[in-house]
């Protein structure tokens, strides 16, 4: 391990950005958060004196270069709408050109299992072929190929950290978030089926210390790594535990592939989910023993504990929302 310079989080306003920023801050490191709009960055990071807030236009070369100026490491978390995955490769190409021009030394892409396609067997290690059979998988593969091809050129070292599906307190983009909200409110939760296939989820707050460590581990660069969750469990078991914490039986509305197709006729997001539904019926489970050998043991929150924290956070959020609504009603 070594001491590292300043880290920039590109696309920082999402859940992963906030979690990695918290880990950097806890390690006593200054960092820069980069996004299109200042307001959400101020809301998320304005309280932290270690955070430098910068806006960028990822379509403008000078803006990318300015956002990366003075950074040693860039962590790339930039998302695109689920129906616009074709934007991933060109966006990455522009970003890499900008960070090279700015003299950045290290680049970390937080990646997904999409480029693998169907798992030949589980769990899989990093030697598994990358053979995506979906459009989104091909776009993610093209994106990470650009990152890996940039390694060793113009003084830049790169890596990809591959994560499974994630969950965590009040993380709206998680497949499981509706379960926690439903349990907290005593309402029916909408889920994407099937529910009885063992699935891997990572408790997203666990990734922060790992990413912070990788920013100062030179031997990690030039390849991709897996970061796995705390084993597997079924979505039905998640629901059972979540509702049990509030003294209720699960109330679930399950959308399988057929229903997703029907809903997709009127809802573009649901239409996009159809293509990736294979991950619900044929999950990809990651083996991260290589990463453990590199950086040592990795703290992983057990599902029981993670689910409890998520339900508590959903209950607190619902309570705060109710208080705000009552206050607004009185004001009116």
Structural features, described:
By secondary structure, this protein is an alpha/beta fold. It has helices spanning 15-26, 38-45, 61-68, 88-101, 135-149, 177-185, 207-214, 235-244, 257-264, 268-275, 278-281, 289-295, 303-331; strands at 7-10, 31-35, 51-55, 73-76, 106-111, 157-162, 165-167, 189-192, 199-203, 223-226, 232-233, 252-255. It has a domain at 7-166 and 204-228 and 285-298: 3-Layer(aba) Sandwich (Rossmann fold), CATH 3.40.50. 42% of the residues lie in helices and 16% in strands. A 7-stranded parallel beta sheet has the order 3-2-1-4-5-6-10, with helices on both faces. Strands 7-9-11 form a 3-stranded mixed beta sheet. Strand 4 (73-76), helix 4 (88-101) and strand 5 (106-111) form a beta-alpha-beta unit. Helix 1 packs across helix 7 (207-214), helix 6 crosses helix 13 (303-331) and helix 9 packs antiparallel against helix 10. The chain starts with 6 loop residues before the first strand and ends with a helix. It holds the Pfam family Epimerase.
